[in-house]
């Protein structure tokens, strides 16, 4: 069932004409987005997959690897986060990593087939004294021929410009939930603070990675509210991570009720439909999802994952397991080539990871 939404708004761009709504819209109402959510599951998935095929190769998935460059002792009180210094999660804190460690981790990620390297810091915002190190990390990782992404908390316009000038491709800054639910989850900053940083990132010319977390006890209207906020930004984020809450002992959300897995898939499908040209990332939480659920998420339009055995501080499926799943589903990693000769290197890395799976199979059987 294809939803009929108006495409006559000033902010829409017609991409092509088929049965799915092929416009990039920025004036979604909560009611329209709720109607998408409430469709029968098969109708929603059909619409999401049809939309996906108009914008992307449905058998390609972008792969990014994460590294925590500064771990724990964060002054913010985000109720989901193992890195908040306010909760006792037993996490070992670490200072800002040395540049050599960052380069070697990025090289290893590239060797196993990742095309983007995302560096995350447990900061409210970067301190002036740390900026030179961070800018150097961007330059060095870029020099390896990888796309770069950072998530460092709130940025001023000057900090955003400095990162852009160093060559940072993406900045990750999540809205996390609806404006209405935000205060239930975080009290040390406001929704407007998040929007201000997103504006600074855009103003500096960087690509935006912005999404949220589901499974935090929010209502369907909160999931709708988050997606409406994302889709009604002046430009859609190029990357939209949808995280399933990783319940970490010691955080206030450790005993939160599980979200119905189909609600998670619906969230991905609706994100795909209303932000059709964005990469939607099946983000945190994959360690607790079976392969059938991940396949369903790809069918719903997810076309990016975090790859490598750790997210920032919590476990993620090992690379071989992901390559094995890609193989079984006929999915290939999306390529990014800073230099044409990298095509061969990338193919070699992926072939190696896929063949290593036999060792993995043997070891895990
Ligand atoms: N401190 C920076 C900030 O908050 O923007 C950057 C790092 S922070 C860990 C990045 C994102 O990780 C958060 O916005 C949240 O979406 C996600 N995250 C953190 N803990 C999570 C958890 N337990 N489950 C799922 N996602 C989580
Ligand atoms: C995003 O949306 N998810 C990633 C990344 N952006 C920085 C982080 C997930 C963190 C999960 C909890 C942890 O590993 O600490
Ligand atoms: Fe700090 Fe970011 Fe974790 Fe919030 S999500 S506690 S800001 S590291």
Keywords, separated by commas or semicolons:
TIM Barrel; ten-stranded parallel β-sheet; 12 helices; globular; disordered N terminus; binds S-adenosylmethionine; binds 6-(5-methyl-2-OXO-imidazolidin-4-yl)-hexanoic acid; binds iron/sulfur cluster
Describe the secondary-structure layout.
Elements: E1 13-14, E2 23-24, H1 30-38, H2 41-55, E3 60-70, H3 99-111, E4 116-121, H4 131-143, E5 147-151, H5 157-166, E6 170-172, H6 179-185, H7 191-203, E7 207-209, E8 212-214, H8 220-231, E9 239-244, H9 261-274, E10 279-282, H10 291-299, E11 304-306, H11 319-329, E12 332-333, H12 342-364
Parallel strand pairs: 3-4, 3-11, 3-12, 4-5, 5-6, 6-7, 8-9, 9-10, 10-11
Antiparallel strand pairs: 1-2
Helix pairs in contact: 1-8, 2-9, 3-4, 4-5, 5-7, 8-9, 11-12
The protein binds S-adenosylmethionine, 6-(5-methyl-2-OXO-imidazolidin-4-yl)-hexanoic acid and iron/sulfur cluster (SF4).
Describe it.
There is one protein chain. This protein is of the alpha/beta class. It has one domain: TIM Barrel (Alpha-Beta Barrel). It has twelve helices and twelve strands. It has helices spanning 30-38, 41-55, 99-111, 131-143, 157-166, 179-185, 191-203, 220-231, 261-274, 291-299, 319-329, 342-364; strands at 13-14, 23-24, 60-70, 116-121, 147-151, 170-172, 207-209, 212-214, 239-244, 279-282, 304-306, 332-333. Strands 3, 4, 5, 6, 7, 8, 9, 10, 11 and 12 form a ten-stranded parallel beta sheet that branches. Strands 1-2 form a two-stranded antiparallel sheet. β4 (116-121), α4 (131-143) and β5 (147-151) form a beta-alpha-beta unit. It is globular. Residues 1-18 and 357-365 have low confidence and may be disordered. The chain binds S-adenosylmethionine, 6-(5-methyl-2-OXO-imidazolidin-4-yl)-hexanoic acid (DTB) and iron/sulfur cluster. Iron/sulfur cluster binds next to loops.
């Amino acid at each position: 069932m294809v939803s009929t939404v108006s495409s006559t708004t000033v902010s829409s761009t017609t991409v092509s004409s088929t049965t799915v709504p092929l416009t990039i819209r920025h004036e979604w109402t909560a009611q329209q987005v709720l109607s998408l959510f409430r469709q029968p599951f098969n109708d929603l998935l059909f619409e999401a997959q049809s939309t996906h095929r108009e914008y992307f190769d449905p058998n390609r998935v972008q792969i990014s690897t994460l590294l925590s460059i500064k771990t724990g002792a964060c002054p913010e009180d985000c109720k989901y986060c193992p890195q908040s210094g306010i909760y006792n999660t037993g996490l070992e804190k670490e200072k800002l990593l040395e540049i050599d460690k960052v380069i070697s981790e990025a090289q290893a990620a590239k060797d196993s087939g990742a095309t983007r390297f995302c560096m995350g810091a447990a900061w409210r915002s970067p301190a002036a004294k740390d900026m030179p190190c961070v800018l150097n990390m961007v330059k060095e990782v870029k020099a390896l021929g990888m796309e770069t992404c950072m998530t460092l908390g709130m940025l001023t316009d000057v900090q955003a410009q400095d990162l852009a000038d160093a060559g940072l491709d993406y900045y990750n800054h999540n809205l996390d939930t609806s404006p209405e639910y935000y205060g239930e989850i975080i009290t040390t900053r406001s929704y407007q603070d998040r929007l201000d940083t997103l504006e600074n990132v855009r103003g500096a010319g960087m690509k935006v990675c912005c999404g949220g977390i589901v499974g935090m006890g929010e209502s369907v209207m909160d999931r709708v509210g988050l997606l409406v906020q994302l889709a009604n930004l002046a430009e859609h984020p190029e990357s939209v991570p949808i995280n399933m809450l990783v319940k970490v002992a010691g955080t206030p959300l450790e005993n939160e009720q599980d979200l119905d897995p189909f609600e998670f898939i619906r969230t991905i499908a609706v994100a795909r439909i209303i932000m059709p040209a964005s990469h939607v990332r099946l983000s945190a939480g994959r360690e607790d999802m079976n392969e059938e659920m991940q396949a369903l998420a790809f069918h719903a339009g997810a076309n990016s994952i975090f790859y490598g055995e750790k997210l920032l501080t919590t476990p993620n499926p090992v690379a071989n397991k992901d390559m094995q799943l890609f193989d079984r589903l006929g999915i290939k990693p999306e390529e990014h080539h800073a230099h044409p000769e990298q095509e061969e290197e990338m193919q070699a890395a992926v072939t190696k990871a896929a063949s290593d799976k036999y060792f993995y199979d043997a070891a895990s059987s």
